[in-house]
Amino acid sequence: MLAQVKTLFLKEFTLEWRNRYALNGMLLYVISTVFVCYLSFRNVVSVPVWNALFWIIMLFASLNAVGRSFIQERKGRLLYYYSIASPQAFLLAKMAYNSLLMLVITFLAYGIYAWWIGDLVQDHLMFMVALVLGSTGFSLILTLMSAIASKTENNMSLMAILSFPVQLPFLITLIKLSKNAVDGLDASVSYGLITVLALIIVIVLALSYILFPYLWRD
Asked: Would you state the pLDDT for residue 29?
């Protein structure tokens, strides 16, 4: 199965590179959103506002980046994948690629955000942990919801509705973790929040692995 995951992952990367307008569109969205925030706020001195604003930007960026994961797949192409790969390999390849994509976008967004809005982070190592967990969690949750929503007509609307109950507790925990990093609190204070985020990621991954074959057969 690992060989299938690798092949499908490279396929995702190749298609994305050929259609660079989609990636460029996501980067343009992040840059323009941060620039609008810069024009509105200039330098944000309030830590909660700085922290919450960044993750709100990343939440909507993830919807644009990962939301089209399954929705853009045509039925004929899905039927071809069905004949050459297992559903678990197909899903894991999608999740791996979306996680890598979101990781790149998140770190670029942080760099642009810190440049224009200002960098208030005191514990950069812990904030990097939050960035990795946040980008991974967003990508896994939205990949699963995109797979479910792709079976309906109102794809994007249903995906946003389905993902909200899972995204909300994940986002709240993520904001708390990153605020601890911005405030420069001791790392031991954040261990519980890291555990919660990691558990949510593991649960989503396990549920996706178990449930996706039933969607695959539809």
From this structure: 85
